[in-house]
Amino acid sequence: MSTKDVIQALGERNQKVAVAESITGGAVLSELISIPGASAVIGGGIVSYQTESKINVLGVPAQVIATSGVISEQTATEMAVAVRAKFDADIAVATTGVAGPDSQDDEPVGRVFIAVASAHGSWVESYLFAGDRAQIRAAAVQAAIALLGKHSGS
């Protein structure tokens, strides 16, 4: 599903979306707002690049990060759930991962977790993208849009 299709589907369902980003640094929200009319469905977004901002701004429990790591299914899910609540959105997407050049939390360069949360539940996918930093981030943006599109009717 293209970004335009995602925005259109959200509009048709009268749904509001929120975004929490780490690895993608605002690029998912930028991609979404590149579509005319996106303002009708986008509630907002938070770039929580550092671990402290995931805890202090988003409200991800420190215990989740201490136990699972900042690059994990659990952290991505908590980010999505938290940003959905902060913006009173119908659906939210969150990204966390390692773009390189070094691994982090015993996760290899290219490991990305993307989560979607809605009133019907949450879903998370794990990816291992190849390439340089820019390629990994671009792949993560496209995967986030696709996962959001997959679950926007959920």
Task: Write structural notes for this entry.
- With 154 residues, this protein is of the alpha/beta class.
- The protein has one domain (3-151): Maf protein, CATH 3.90.950.20.
- It contains 6 helices and 5 strands.
- The longest helix is centred in the last third of the chain and has 19 residues, at 133-151.
- It is globular.
- The mean pLDDT is 96.
Low-pLDDT runs: none
Q: Please provide the ordered H/E string of secondary-structure elements.
A: HEHEHHHEEEH
The global form is globular
**Overall average residue pLDDT:** 96
Q: How much β-strand is present in the residues?
A: 15-25%
Major sheet: arrangement of strands: 2-1-3-4-5
Which tags fit this structure?
alpha/beta; five-stranded mixed beta sheet; Maf protein; 154 residues; 6 helices
Brief summary:
The chain is built from 6 helices and 5 strands; from the N terminus they run H-E-H-E-H-H-H-E-E-E-H. With 154 residues, the protein is an alpha/beta fold. A 5-stranded mixed beta sheet has the order 2-1-3-4-5, sandwiched between helices.
Topology:
Blueprint (H helix, E strand, L loop, with lengths): L2 H10 L4 E5 L5 H7 L8 E6 L3 H8 L3 H7 L4 H14 L4 E7 L13 E8 L2 E8 L4 H19 L3
Parallel strand pairs: 1-2, 1-3
Antiparallel strand pairs: 3-4, 4-5
Helix pairs in contact: 1-6, 2-6
